[in-house]
Amino acid sequence: MSIYKNNLITMLGYISWKILEINENSILILTESWLWYEILINELSFSKLAVKEETELYLYHHITEWHQTLFWFLTLEEKKLFTELLKISGIGGKAWLQILMLGKERLIEAVQGDDGKTIESIKGIGKKMAEKIILELKDKDFVKNYSWVSTEKTSAKQLSLPPTILENIKTTLQNMGYQNRDIERVLQILPENYTSLEEILPFMIREL
User: Fold this and answer.
1) How many angstroms separate the CA atoms of 4 and 11, rounded?
2) Could you tell me which residues come within 8 angstroms of residue 141 by beta carbon, excluding any fewer than 6 positions away?
3) Model-level pTM?
4) Fewest C-beta atoms under 10 Å: which of 71, 111, 168, 196?
5) Cα–Cα distance, 76 to 89 (Å, whole number)
6) Does residue 107 belong to any structural domain of this protein?
7) How many other C-beta atoms can be found within 10 angstroms of the C-beta atom of residue 94?
8) In 50-179, which ranges are continuous DSSP H helix?
9) What is the dihedral sign for C-alpha 119, 124, 128, 134?
10) What angle separates helix 104-112 from helix 127-137, to the nearest 10 degrees?
């Protein structure tokens, strides 16, 4: 939503709000000023929002000649990455929102390694689009100049989560369409220091 005054457009970039309705693709929110907005999200964002009634968000207000769309992001860095990706022609915001589920490091690794299969693993991304994404991103500065930080996952086969958290994790992921056998598999590689829903669900979705 934009406010037009003297031919200027007020861009929305940040809102504090309460959730009225939520699904894997969008949320309906009510702001403190009693304005309602529909915002597009991906499943990673959904995993965060599913455990909070009130939170804060970073927005990208995308305005074209034909429509206006709000996109929600977990971090400011994710929003900045989205704005870079959106500069590539032929690929819309909804597709880039899904691609962000790979995470910045995994996306860059796929581009640098010509790994189209990883990008194709995102819902709605076919072989030709994956090839275009790799081609377009290879010369981007944030890809060429990315500094890698080594991270290691800790085996969590002996990890004992509280039953209520474990049940919430499984129920949320099953409702999103993931198979129980896959959920159990990823639980086995969950880092031991992950103990809250806010940490566990995004990790699970990235690995599923």
Assistant:
1) 10
2) none
3) 0.60
4) 196
5) 23
6) yes
7) 14
8) 76-85, 93-99, 104-112, 116-120, 127-137, 141-144, 163-175
9) negative
10) 90
Q: Is residue 151 in some structural domain?
A: no
CATH number of residue 133's parent domain: 1.10.150.20
Q: Strand pairing partners for 17?
A: 31, 55
Phi-psi region of 114 (alpha: psi -120 to 50; beta: other; left: phi over 0): left
* Percent of the chain residues past pLDDT 90, beyond the cut: 0
CB hemisphere CA count around 177 (13 angstroms) = 4
Q: Are residues 169 and 129 in the same domain?
A: no
Residue found by looking up tokens 């039953």 in the block: 163
- Name the residue range of residue 63's domain: 3-73
- Per-residue pLDDT of 21-34, as tens digits, reads 888 888 887 877 77
Cβ-Cβ contacts under 8 Å for 191 (sequence gap 6 or more): 153, 154, 156, 203
44-63 pLDDT, tens digit per residue, is: 777 777 655 556 678 888 88
Distance, first Cα to last Cα, the chain = 34
In a domain, 101, yes or no: yes
CB 29 within 8 A of CB 39: yes
